[in-house]
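Database export, one record per block. Field names are fixed; values are copied verbatim from the stored entry.
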Amino acid sequence: MEVQIEATENLFSDEMKEMEEIERNIANQIKKEIGLRVDVTLVESESLPRSEGKAARVIDKRDFS
């Protein structure tokens, strides 16, 4: 399962090592909290689509073919 997280500009770094560490820390916190291993990807702020009306909190991108 992939979790995409919008990050503010001050969280982004030129160092990939730092970014990967932040993603690992978030993934570990999620696993500790809910017991599921997830792949975390940091994305730019305001880059995830917004829904109108009822919030779409989960987008299922599995391929069932």
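Remark 1: The two ends are 18 Å apart (CA to CA).
Remark 2: The first strand starts at residue 2 and ends at 7.
End of record.
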